[in-house]
Every structure is written in C-alpha cells, then in structure tokens.
Design brief:
alpha+beta; Creatine Amidinohydrolase, Chain A, domain 1; Creatine Amidinohydrolase; 19 strands; binds glycine; binds manganese (II) ion
Amino acid sequence: MIKESEYKKRRDALTKKLSNNSLTVVFSAENKTRSNDTNYPYRQNSNFYYLTGFKEDNSALVIAKSKKETKTILFVQHKDEVYELWNGKRLGKLEARKRFLVDAVIVSKDFKKSIKKLCKEKKYLYYDFQQKIPKAKKLLIDNFKTHRDISPLIGEMRLVKSKSEISLIKKAIEITKIAHHEAMAFDKRNKNEYELLASIEHNFKKHGAYSDAYTSIVACGDSANTLHYISNDKPLVNGELILIDAGCEYEYYASDITRTIPVNTKFSEPQRELYNMILDTQLKIINMIKPGVFRSDLQKEAEILLTKGMIRLGILKGKYKKLIKKQEHKKYYPHGIGHWMGLDVHDEAPYLDANKKEIALKKGMVLTIEPGIYISKDDKNVLKKFRGIGIRIEDDILVTKTSYNNLSGGIAKTVKEIETRSQHKKMA
Ligand code: GLY
Ligand code: MN
Ligand code: MN
C-alpha cells in the first residue's frame, strides 16, 4: 500500500514545478457508458490517482499557488443515502478530511462556487489537455487566457518508480506469473481461445487482482499475426502456437507479459527455431539494460539481431545493413522494443526531455522488452514451414543502480521450461 504521506510528497513535488499565480486542476475519470444505461467498471484516471490514491469518480484535485502560499484542495462527492444504496458507499467530506493530507476538502457540488474564488488573481491554468473535461467544469477554462498542460509535469515524476510502486508492480507480476503458468498447464484439447482466457482471468481475480491491465491477447496460430488481436474467439488448433499477451493490474499498477506456447505441449522444429532466435535476441537486449543506456540503443540492436536471425533462418535474404536501411525487417518486426510501464501499461511518461532529447535509462524506471516476429500464413515469400507463426516474448524490467532486474524472469520462458509446464494435467 502507498501511504498518504507519499501522495502528499508527490503533490508537493508537483507544486514546486508550477508557476506562481497558477491554478492546477486534475480531474478524476468520468464514468463510461457500455450500452444504454450500463457502465463499464470504473477505473480512476492515472494522474489523479498518482496524486491522491483516491478511487471515487466526480472528484478533483486543485492546487492554488501564489507567491506567498499554496493551497491544496480535494473535491469529493457528498454522502447521499439513495445514491449509495444503488452504487456503493462514498467516503464523504468528513472521512476524506481525516484521510487526505490536503489543506481542505470540499464537496464536488460546490466546485463552481469555490473555484471562482480560487481563480482570482491567478494567471495560469494547468490541466490535462488530453483528459475529457466534465461539461460543468468547462467554464473554468474560459476564465484563463494562459493554459498549460499538467500531464508532462506529472509524467516526469511517474518515470521513476518509488519503492512502494515497485512492490505493487512486483505483486502484479507475481499474480500474472501464476496465470501464465496455469495457462501453460491448461488442457487445451478441443478448447477455444476464450476458454484459455477465462483461466487467465480466473487466476488474476483468484489471487487478488481485480482487473487486467489491458485487454488480453490469446491468439492461436495465424491470429498472432494481428498485433492487436483481442477477439480471442477461435479454436485452439493442434500443432499451432498460442501467443498470450496478458497482465493483471494490482492496486492500479500494471504488469505486461507475453509468452508464446504450443497447443499440444511440444514446439515443432520450425516453431522452436524461430522461438529460440527471438528468445536469444530478448536476452541480449535485456542484458544491455543499465543506467545511461537509451531506449533507441535497445531498439537499434534488436533490429540488427532480429534481422540477422531472419537471414540465418532464410526468412530474409541479403545483407543485414541493407535490409535495415530499406526497412525490410519491419514487415516481420513492425513494433517497438518496449515502453515504460507503471500505473498505465503504456505509462504516460515522456521519452524526450524538455529539449526534445531522448531520456536515458535511470535507476527506478520500469520498461518492457518485447521482441517479436510475425509471419502471415499467406506470405509466399517465406518458407512454408514458418508461415502462420507469430511469436512475441515480453518481460518487465526494472533499471537498477548498475544494471537491471528482470521482474518477470521467474515466468517459464525457454522451450524446455514451457514444454515441461505444458504437460497437460489431465492427459488421458
Ligand atoms: N500488451 C500491450 C503491449 O505489449 O504493449
Ligand atoms: Mn508491452
Ligand atoms: Mn504486452
């Protein structure tokens, strides 16, 4: 758990970055309609959560900063018996005052009235340009001539994880590990992708993760060549591989893991060849990680290794430098080597600094490393034995003082480890 004092420390650190004579407003997420009058499960806005740890909707954090003083105010929903009967308890103003280390707590229905006073003599308004601003609050924006985006300032802070954040990420990965190991052991005969997905989601919830961190991908055979395959509705076919990109969210922190495993417990020879080439690349790239290294260095090296590997396997023909120059490798490896991970699976944290220079890796950052190769079943340019195979291997890496810690390194990954776990429990 993250202590109230840590949230306060974050708000104080953010306040230091703000101009004097400014008003900052960070809103909670809005409820999203699923269909007619039903909603999706509510998920708090990550920036608001990062600064408050508060999970209720219709809330806002306001920081009013002038030269002489700063006031931090949390707007929360009022207690309402009827609303709470239908939708669950609200914390309310009195309890919020006890819990949050802010200067004042005000009920959200008084937002407009209060904000009018707070606006006085303030020149700048900071808010998240990307966030959908609740209609009633749009007025606020019109009061200011100078608008500034708050999100890059919070993003810089989110880039480096605290000890408590790292322990929540570790917990998310621990649960995801159980789910992936169970998926390997799952008896896949005459089953569908969504039945395997159900096992994964069951394990997330069983072990304390209420939600996934993103829509899982369970893609058998050629489906793995659709990068954002989320329909997960096809049969598991004997002899094919299944790409499983699934990670739970634990107390708002993500994990993001991909394993590619055989349906029938054994990799075929071409599957194994391609798999080992990608695994070898992944291990080499992970080994490069340490403070001072750039993500673009990892990207470049991954492209070189994968291109050389594809030449060796006969998937590409020619010299690797020329192939890369002509971007030929992108046909089979079209995505990035990894991304920041934290409160969001693709964490909303910058890759470039204020001078547009790339940010180097630093202790406490968490990123994924996820090389993959995708060969369509219809690609006549590639040896038949490789067609219809899509493989990605993804781990979550913490940058340490001198090197790295592969937080998901305990999840079976070599062909042997996966095959051992894939011996179906209920084999006839
Ligand atoms: N699961 C999303 C990603 O790997 O980036
Ligand atoms: Mn990822
Ligand atoms: Mn992923």
